[in-house]
Design goal:
Blueprint (H helix, E strand, L loop, with lengths): L5 E2 L8 E3 L5 E3 L6 E2 L19 H5 L6 H16 L14 H11 L12 H10 L1
Helix pairs in contact: 2-4
Length: 128
Amino acid sequence: MHENKTIHRDVKSDNVLFNYKGEVKLADFGASISLTSQHSTTTDQVGTTLYMAPELCQGTPYSFPVDIWSFGILCVELANLLRPHAEVRPYPETPQMILDLIKKKGVPQLCNSRAWSKQFIAFVDRCL
């Protein structure tokens, strides 16, 4: 996808499909964008707020690493079996409230880091 200069911009658990054979596919390219040699970044704020990379949230120029960030958030969600920042009460209802939460709380953490290998923890840290 990135080799073809496409940014997905909405990597999240809802868009990851898998089957009984263990095959995994990324779905819903409705928010994706193709970059060109003339336009190697974009500033559009597109995607699901909880999974947005900081540069995407801030409206600063971004490119492919925003998908890597979202994948890191997805890994934390799958490891914790909870959506990012699920412990917050009351849970924010609007995208702006979620952006404020992300700015305040920062990167969601693995709930039980002892349950995961050093390699997995390093991988998630590198994504984020």
